[in-house]
Amino acid sequence: MNMTPVISSNISSIGYENGTLYVSFHHGGLYAYAGVSESVYNELMSAPSHGKYLAAHIKGIYPYSKIR
Question: How many domains in the chain?
Answer without folding.
Answer: 1
